[in-house]
Amino acid sequence: MTGTILFTIACLVALGLLFAVVLYFVAQKFKVEEDPRIGTVESILPGANCGGCGQAGCHAFAENVVKAPSMDGFFCPVGGNPVMAKVAEALGRAVEEKAPMVAVMRCSGSLANRARTNVYDGYSSCKVMASLYAGDTGCKFGCLGKGDCEAACQFDAIHVDPEKGIAVVDEDKCTACGSCVKACPKGILELRAKGFKNRRVFVSCINKDKGAVTRKACSVGCIGCGKCAKTCPFGAITVENNVAYIDFTKCKMCRKCVEVCPTHAIHEVNFPPKPKIEEKPNEENV
Amino acid sequence: MKKTFRIGGVHPHDNKISAEAAIEVFPAIETAYVSMAQHLGAPATPVVAVGDKVKVGQVIAEPSGFISAYVHSPVSGTVKSVGPRADIAGNMVPHVEITVEGDEWMEDIDRSDRIISEIPYSPEEIIEKVKKAGVVGLGGASFPTHVKLAPPKDKKAECLILNGTECEPYLTSDDRIMRERPQEILIGGAIMMKALGVTRGYVGIEENKPAAIASMTEAAKAFPQIEVVTLKKRYPQGGEKQLIDAVIRRQVPSGALPIDTGAVVQNVGTSLAVYEAVQKNKPTIDNVITVTGRCLPAQHNYKVRIGTPMSKILEVAGGLPENAAKVISGGPMMGRAIANLDAATVKANGAILVLTEAETRRRSESACIRCSKCASACPMGLEPWLLNKLSRAGGRYDELEKERVFDCIECGCCSFTCPAGIPLLDMIRISKAEVMKIMRSRPKK
Amino acid sequence: MNKLFVSPSPHTHGPESTQTIMRDVLIALTPAMLVSVLASGWSALVLIIAGVATCVLTEFLIQKYLIKGPVTVCDLSAAVTGVLLALNLPPNAPWWLIVIGSVVAIGVAKMTFGGLGQNIFNPALVGRVFLLVSFPVLMTTWDDAGSMFGIVDAFSGATPLGAVKEGLKNGQTLSQLTADNLTFSQQFFFNVGGSAGELSALALILGFIYLLCRRVIKATIPVTILCTVFVVSGIFWLANPERFTNPVFNIFTGGLLLGSIFMATDYVTSPMTTKGQIIFAVGIGLITVFVRYFGSYPEGVSFAILIMNCTVPLLNKYCKPHRFGEVKK
């Protein structure tokens, strides 16, 4: 009886020792060396894994930023400058502050402004719709309103307004991760500088058709008349392919262009109301 | 036993309600809008300028690449404009707009009804004539025919299959030309066989067209090398791969071309176009278009000049009825819904189909019940339910590639058959495009 | 004129919908329901009605108030579960038994996994097995006193399978047992003892033929199960006819026909490809025979199907359909 018990115990102990030795050597052989700084950086990052930085996720970002010689090309749009400053501090490097960005919706072709010419009846996805045809209005460039951007956004910051039929950005929630920009098959969304006091001036249209065609399709489309470009004192506005574009790095927000635009396609946001009560341009927020 | 393809397939109601309407010549139009993108591949380059006088059959655009085709003027008159115009999907495509004045044809076109069966040309001459006439595949894909008649050096064609299956519901234009012009079709077939250097030819026709089978069989007596094969009615028999499988029992391997089985497939309409191009010097300037739909007052098969606006055709056919909900260019399974009725016809337009809301409205989607009917219906042996699931998960392109999403021929059998009304093909099409983009971007071995 | 619709192809749809499929299954179950009511009287009818009502109500309440999503009871899938569960119980079972079973079937086996199409196990079978384990006496006693139109004589006792199992346990041989057991024609048209759905093979086969004609199911799974049971029990029977029951007896008794035609073919819980379906069905056949011959329960179809249900995801993963252009090996 005692013999059996002793034998059993001895066997178990021997087996245990054997496995411990094997495990020790295996662990030594296949040891993965990881820079401890990767963990530190990862813990600083927001952990949203949104991919807005262009990396596969927060861990990949941490790994690559630690490996890289400098902070160039690495920016976490969600955490913004404070997070990047902390990351730089943890790595003992210097980092340049970047202007905060926000996603901007460059289409105002709401149901009221842009008449529907047909009814889309397929799977409710902008991608499917865009691959099929030009869209359910006369405008081939405008928002399709099926919400691919909404599905892509992890921060609940963009929604398709059921009354307008187009996407609307919630700029307080937007982290400028760029997921919606990638998701939009029409390339309507753009990351622009958030601007001083969140003030921005931009052309809310990307219609490249000739003016007459655009005007027929949508009442607030850019017709490429070029008045804004002539008015701009800073040369920030270019008109190419019948559509104006404001370079936000050059724009000084004088808002002269907003006044001259005949179709109110240029929007100004978050400016205080003007003292003069004149005929006011379309101040519809995006 | 009648032949058919071996995997999948569905049986939609064939609705061949326009089969008894003889081909009518469509009345003269005032303006023709000729698209420069009537074929697969690069759009043609216009060679006419505003104000130029053109005759019927005159070259107005030249090919701009290896896979591209000539475009000829379908009318005589003055070029009014050259520039972008919306196609049926509303996308801008370069067009040449011609104001019609009279009906003056190029002198070398033989407009008589005389049937010429001798083929005095060499294969090279045939291919050159087909190319110069701008013939493209009229079955739907509009692949330039001269390219298909000259397979790569390392591939050897063994037989030619003429596609007279017309497996899409409603369509009857091929049925009509097989009834009315069987000899010309077969001579066209013989011409293509000579160009390919093959001695065996088949014409595949589905059993629901007995009159076409009878007239083609009768005419084929003069062509001992061409056999008329009656096929079971089953969609998508007219798919190139399915037709080859049905007629000669060979399956095109995944990623390979149909020519790898030794077969070259041409639509009967293309065959007729080849006959006219080679024997009559007549380029592709018109085609037979079925105008059909249960809600229309009358059914028609029109011979229409290319560049005629769809709205004009519908107007002549009796106008769009009040209850029309969708107008489709092509059949209900693979046709394209027309968003812009002012768009002009192109070479490969075979039909204008008008459906009511009850006939065409999408069902609301419910949960997948895993009945696997989509997998049973898929003629390529894929699993649409799985591809749908992977597509919706987003980004799972490796798995989609492993499940061979790129083999999808977009026939629509899965969406057609799904009892839960899931838009399977919508999802598969999107991920197929993504996967093919990834595959193309890989360095070649 | 109205605005035109635009959508990707195809622009037409086949006639089938989830609802028509479930309706066809209900129609196919009608002969079996009729037989059950004729043989066992009102109690069977009460069971069916209570089963359907509870299943539909449970699904409705969960979708409406718990999930707060769309209510899809109109697709009739819950009704099918209710009927199947009713046909799986003794016809004289009390009504509250099936109410409990239905709540478990829909609430636990179906909705917790996400509703129609997501469940791993056949809901009706989960309900049945739950009842079998919780109320073994009620679930295995067949008191058939209430025969409605006097077609069948009043009968009380165990099912043929139960009787055989009991007899074998007591040391009797089969030849002694079968002397007072059923003839083939009795088995085929009216099995006197058994759960509601086991009564008549003919009624079930009628339903099977209807489903095949309507292309709701393919014959692969039922035929493979029956063949497997026939062959495997045949081998045992040939080896020792005194110990093991004969193959024909095995096929027509118990819930084998009901199970193989209506439960194993359940879309959601059976494999997608023919290859997978054959493996699945062979597994069910084998387990059924082994439970019957060697297990402690007289009947094994429910367990067999539930066990094989677990293998479905794996079978779906490894059994791929024959792809076009693939060279046959």
Structural class category of chain C: mainly alpha
**Percent of sequence in beta strands of chain C:** under 5%
Average pLDDT taken over every residue of chain C: 84
Give the strand line-up of the largest sheet of chain C.
2-3
How many DSSP E strands of chain B? 17
Shape of chain B: globular
CATH class of the largest domain in chain B: Alpha Beta
What pattern of helices and strands is seen along the backbone of chain C? EHHHHHHEEHHHHHHHHH
- Considering residues with a beta carbon less than 8 A from a beta carbon on another chain, report the largest interface and each chain's count: B-C, 64 and 37 residues
Helix content of chain C: 55-70%
Count of DSSP-assigned helices of chain C: 15
- State Rg of chain B: 22 Å
The secondary structure category of chain B is: alpha/beta
Note the gap between the termini of chain B: 44 Å
Q: Give me the side-by-side strand order of the main sheet of chain B.
A: 1-14-13-17-15-16
According to CATH, the fold-level topology of the largest domain in chain B is Ubiquitin-like (UB roll)
Helices and strands, with pairings:
The complex is a heterotrimer of chains A (286), B (445) and C (329).
Chain A: H1 2-29, H2 36-44, H3 58-67, H4 80-91, E1 101-105, E2 118-120, H5 126-132, H6 148-152, E3 158-160, E4 167-169, H7 179-183, E5 189-193, E6 200-203, H8 211-217, H9 227-231, E7 237-240, E8 243-246, H10 256-260, E9 266-269
Antiparallel strand pairs in A: 1-5, 3-4, 6-9, 7-8
Chain B: E1 23-25, E2 31-35, E3 45-46, E4 53-54, E5 59-62, E6 71-72, E7 77-86, E8 92-100, H1 123-132, H2 145-148, E9 159-164, H3 173-180, H4 182-196, E10 200-206, H5 210-220, E11 226-231, H6 240-248, E12 263-267, H7 268-280, E13 286-292, E14 300-305, H8 310-316, E15 324-329, E16 336-337, E17 351-356, H9 357-360, H10 373-377, H11 384-393, H12 397-402, H13 413-417, H14 424-441
Parallel strand pairs in B: 1-14, 9-10, 9-12, 10-11, 13-17
Antiparallel strand pairs in B: 2-8, 3-5, 4-7, 5-6, 7-8, 13-14, 15-16, 15-17
Helix pairs in contact in B: 1-4, 3-5, 4-7, 11-14
Chain C: E1 4-6, H1 18-40, H2 42-66, H3 77-87, H4 95-110, H5 123-134, H6 136-140, E2 142-143, E3 156-157, H7 160-169, H8 174-179, H9 184-189, H10 201-213, H11 220-239, H12 247-252, H13 256-263, H14 274-294, H15 301-318
Antiparallel strand pairs in C: 2-3
Helix pairs in contact in C: 1-2, 1-3, 1-10, 2-3, 2-4, 3-4, 3-5, 4-5, 5-15, 10-13, 11-13, 11-14, 14-15
